[in-house]
């Protein structure tokens, strides 16, 4: 197992992590921006007004993209297990 294989696995791990967290983070960003814009327009400064819609939107994003996330993780794990013999030199 050489350093290029370790770096390749690390880069693939970072890419899959970014792909998996993107739907949740982008949803939270968009909903947070929309709620902040609404709060600044109406001058309502309520803490729960920013938290509850964001929590609901993130829950919906997880519900919608959860199956895709699990299938991506399963395929990544299968790929890593398939690479074990090559990494061990066999």
Automatic annotation (TrEMBL):
Its subcellular locations are: Cell membrane; Bacterial flagellum basal body
Q: Which GO terms describe its cellular component?
A: bacterial-type flagellum basal body; plasma membrane
Query: Does the keyword Transit peptide feature in the UniProt annotation?
Result: no
Chief localization: membrane
- The answer to whether the entry has keyword Cell membrane is yes
Q: What does this protein do?
A: Role in flagellar biosynthesis.
Q: Please give the name of this protein.
A: Flagellar biosynthetic protein FliQ
Instruction: State the organism named in the record.
Output: Sanguibacter keddieii (strain ATCC 51767 / DSM 10542 / NCFB 3025 / ST-74)
